[in-house]
Structures are given as C-alpha cells and as structure tokens.
Design brief:
The protein is of the alpha/beta class and 546 residues long. The chain is built from 16 helices and 16 strands. The protein folds into 2 domains: 313 residues, Rossmann fold (3-Layer(aba) Sandwich), CATH 3.40.50.1820; 213 residues, Rossmann fold (3-Layer(aba) Sandwich), CATH 3.40.50. The chain starts with 5 loop residues before the first strand and ends in an 8-residue tail after the last helix.
C-alpha cells in the first residue's frame, strides 16, 4: 500500500481508492481491540429505474471525499413482526473492517453473506458488528444485496434481461469489487474466504456452483444452509405476473408489459405482498422469491441448471470447505407452531408434506403417504404421533429444511471434490446468550441450540452484551473465531482454541464425523446420522440424492 493513500486525523481515517477518496474511522471493539472501519462503500450503481430487477452495474468513480463512517440502509424489506416496510431500494453497499492498514504481509480476507430467507436482513452493525473478528489480524467484509422480488424477480423473455438471481449477481459483483480493491485496505486479494449463514450459506453454495466466481475466492464456509435446500430451488412460476396482479395490474401475462408495470411501482409494494397459493403452502414454501434456475443462458447467468446437477463438475470441488449446522435447527418454527397448532394436525393428516420435495417425484401418492407415515414413526418412536408433541415436529423441520441438505452436500463433496471438507455441529446451549433462540421462543423456558444461534458468538449485535472473559460464552466466541480465522489464513481450521482436538477432514468411510462444539469440544459421529440415512432412502429411486 502506498503511504500516500492513507491519512489520519484523530479517529478519522482517509483512504484513497482508484474510485475516489473515502472517510472511515479508527474504532475499538467492546474488548478494547483497535481496528479501522469503512462502512457504506458503494460497489454498484444504485439499482433504480431501468436497473430495477436487473443485474447490477459496477460503481462509477466519484469526486470529493465519500463519508464511509456508518452503514448504509439495509435492503428494502417487509418487517416480519410489524408488517411495515424498512430499508432502501438503493442498497448496494459494503463494509470493510481491517485490523491493520499497514503490515508486512497482506491480511486474509473474510467476506460474510447474511441470511434471512431472502426477504429480510442487512449488513449493519445492529446485527453484524465486527468486534469479535477484530481481535484477529484479518479483514472482514459484510455486504448488502437485494431482497425479495427486487433481488429475485424472473422473466422468461431474453430481450428484457431479467432472468432472475439479481441478488446473487449483487454478491458476485461485490466479490469482484473485493478482489479488485481490498489490497487498499491491507487485504490479500488472493486469500479470500466467503462464509454465510442460512440463506447466506445457500448463497455461498450457489456461488460455489457458478462459473461466474471461479477466481474470486479460495475457500468457503456454509453454516446451516446449502443450495440443495428446497427453499433455495424455487419452481419456475408466474410469480412476476402474480405480483403485478396483486398490485392492480389488469393486463395479460406478457413479460414486457408486466415488467413495465412493476418498474413504475413504488418500491415498498414490491416487498409487501402475499403471493403463495395453497399448493405452494402445502409444500411448505415460505417465500415467493428466491434463487431460481434461470430461464435462458446469458453472459452473467449464475444457475443454468438445478444445483444438484452442478455438484459433480463445479470448480469449487478444488477449494476447502467447512460445513455444518446447529443441534436443534427446527426451533426457528417454535412460535409459528405454537400460534398455529393446526399446522401439526395438517401434517399428521397429510404426512406426505414432511417428505423432501426432490424425493417425491419418483413415487405414487400412495407410496408417498406410506413413506411420510414411516418418517413420522421415525421421529415419534413408539409414541403415537400427536400435535401435543411440538418438539418432535420442530425436529422434523430441522432435518427437512437444513440437516439433510447439509448431508447431501457432504456426500457430493466426498464423491467429487479433491479438496478437504470439514464438518461441525454447533451445540453450545447458553442459558441466556443464544440470542436467536430467544427471538424464536420468547420467554418460554425452551432449551436447545436454534437455527442462527452460532451468530451470537460470531458477531456483536444490538441484542448482545459484553460477556466476561472467564465465561463459557466467551470461550465459545474465541473457539468459533479461532476456527474461522485459522481456516481463512491457511485452509486448516486447527487453532489454539480447540487444542488438543484433532479435527480431520471427512472421508467417505464416515461422512458424519463432526467437531461437536458444546461446553466441551469432541469429535463424534452426528447423533442425527440415523435419521439422515432414513432421508437418504427416500431418494433411492430419484437419482437426486446429490
């Protein structure tokens, strides 16, 4: 880095990029570690007007000094609790946090992609403050991408250039920005790790399967999500037409006319809607817009085929991977099942609904019903299935929506990948610091490690507090950060924080051997493995296991 690129005045930090000058700041973490923060840096043109729904365009240089001392607005989205609309359509900004602006060697770069079911979330300090990572010599990047219809609307007419997956293309453009400019923040452009959680992990996996990203990162971490998850593989539907009709469109289902109508709507209407039909709800789809197999091949196509069809030959089989999930993923559905117990009764009456969508295609309705009944028996054991057993149903959701697709991804890696794959299971059950379980379960006395609970130990947030250095919670923070940073530095997750544990890469002989992260660390076969094998059997006649 040229010394003329950096100037400092008190805590203000000026940095000169080829695009223009930015103003950041020198900060301290809650544990008094110093670092540099540059937030709200544009990586694309605002996706407004004719650019709405389309692939992002690279940002243009600017004059003067751009203030980058606070995060940009989160992407426009509907608040799932209040029903109101938050955020901004102009949202394509990223944040760079670096431990050092000068060092003998450039620092490893870690790029995080947030989750939120593709309709909520954002790269803000409220949720993803870098405090824990900034105890280490790394560069951390968090980024916004478009959500809901703004990020995933798809139209089949090639002339309109809206094939879908604009949000994934946002992420790719952000990675290209990182590759091109991160050295100005003391980051190594040839040592980039991409990691994500939930829909963010599914996004990372989709990027791993796309030829668009083959030179953009060197390793990846998938936390509670993969591109094989049924909630990633949206069916090719008339969702754009439905969205237009929901907002008053009275014309025919002609792509050009639908697009013209939608591009003129105020943006809030594009994220505030109810579009799923009864059959889609029966199949447990939870949102109408998400990643999709693009209807035609374009220069920037991300997913030309279904993800499971891309596993064998993907370039990312050559890069190391950490993958895993949490021990009670299904707790994220707790409030919904508590408020709507009829969901459980419906599953008892229609057991086919608990089967993976990919596994249904090869079987008759009678076979599917029998298979669903057998799966209910697997989860309930000798006990008669009942809607009073809410936690049994929650366990089913954990397998159906997360763990089995993690397992399928591992099987594919062990068959096709030349690089190592490491499996973890997060099982640290804090009485009060599993912040996402608290969101899902409220004040009910519920135990277990819920979907997204690992984020409590990776990022400081508005819900966090400074835990004591001698606490089990702080030890867990240090373990997770240690693993991720060690992996980002040299593709090996071993670190002082997990000694004397030896965490081997997976082998075909035991695809379920995981590092279990609880109060203590251990190497163990997943307790979930028996049920995962039962899910495997559902795919026996489909050729779609992986």
């Amino acid at each position: 880095m040229n010394k003329d690129e950096i100037t400092q005045e008190d805590n203000e930090q000026l940095l000169r990029l080829p695009l223009g000058e930015i103003r950041g700041q020198r900060c301290q973490t809650i544990y008094a570690h110093a670092y540099y923060s540059f937030e709200g840096i544009p990586y694309a043109k605002p996706p407004l007007g004719e650019l709405r729904f389309k692939a992002p365009q690279p940002v243009e240089p600017w004059a003067g000094v751009k203030d980058c001392t606070q995060c940009a607005s989160k992407p426009m989205q509907k608040n799932s609790r209040t029903g109101g609309v938050e955020g901004a359509e102009d949202c394509l900004y990223l944040n760079v946090y670096t431990k050092e602006l000068k060092s003998e060697q450039l620092l490893p770069v870690m790029v995080f992609i947030f989750g939120g079911a593709y309709y909520m979330g954002g790269a803000t300090r409220n949720s993803y403050s870098p405090d824990y990572f900034m105890s280490e010599k790394v560069v951390l990047v968090t980024l916004n991408y478009r959500l809901c219809s703004l990020g995933f609307l798809s139209l089949a007419d090639p002339a309109l250039q809206v094939p879908g997956n604009a949000a994934l293309k946002d992420q790719i453009l952000a990675l290209r920005w990182v590759k091109q400019y991160i050295s100005h923040f003391n980051g190594d452009p040839n040592n980039i790790t991409v990691f994500g959680e939930s829909a963010g992990a599914a996004s990372v996996h989709a990027l791993m399967l796309s030829e668009q990203t083959s030179d953009l990162f060197q390793r990846a971490v998938l936390m509670s999500g993969t591109a094989l998850s049924y909630w990633v593989n949206m069916p090719q539907t008339d969702m754009a037409y439905r969205l237009a009709k929901f907002n008053g469109y009275s014309g025919e289902n002609i792509d050009a006319e639908v697009l013209c109508f939608l591009q003129q709507l105020e943006p809030a209407k594009l994220v505030q809607h109810s579009l799923l039909n009864e059959e889609e709800r029966r199949k447990l789809y939870i949102f109408p817009f998400g990643p999709i197999v693009e209807p035609y091949i374009s220069a920037d196509c991300v997913l030309p085929k279904r993800p499971f069809q891309l596993l064998k030959n993907t370039w990312s089989n050559r890069i190391p991977l950490i993958i895993g999930g949490n021990s009670f993923e299904g707790l994220f559905m707790y409030q919904r099942l508590k408020m709507f117990p009829q969901i459980m009764r419906t599953l008892l009456n229609d057991p086919e609904r608990i089967l993976p969508e990919d596994a249904k295609e090869a079987y008759t309705p009678e076979q599917r019903r029998e298979m669903g009944t057998n799966m209910l028996k697997l989860f309930f054991g000798a006990k008669e299935p009942s809607d009073r057993s809410v936690f049994k149903f929650l366990d089913i959701y954990g397998y159906k929506q997360f763990w089995h697709d993690i397992h399928r991804t591992i099987l594919a890696r062990l068959s096709y990948a030349s690089a190592p794959t490491y499996l973890y299971r997060f099982d640290f059950d804090s009485p009060d610091f599993n912040l996402y379980r608290a969101k899902f379960c409220g004040h009910d006395p519920v135990h277990g490690v819920a979907h997204a609970d690992e984020l409590s130990y990776m990022f400081f947030s508005n819900d966090s507090w400074k835990v004591s250095l001698d606490s089990a919670e702080y030890k867990t923070i240090r373990r997770l950060i240690g693993i991720l940073v060690a992996f980002a530095k040299n593709s090996d997750p071993h670190c002082d924080e997990i000694k004397p544990i030896v965490w081997h890469a997976l082998e075909k002989s035991n695809p379920s051997l995981a590092l279990n992260i609880s109060n203590d660390l251990s190497i163990m076969e997943l307790p979930e493995s028996v049920k995962l094998k039962a899910f495997d059997e559902l795919f026996a006649s489909t050729e779609q296991l992986y």
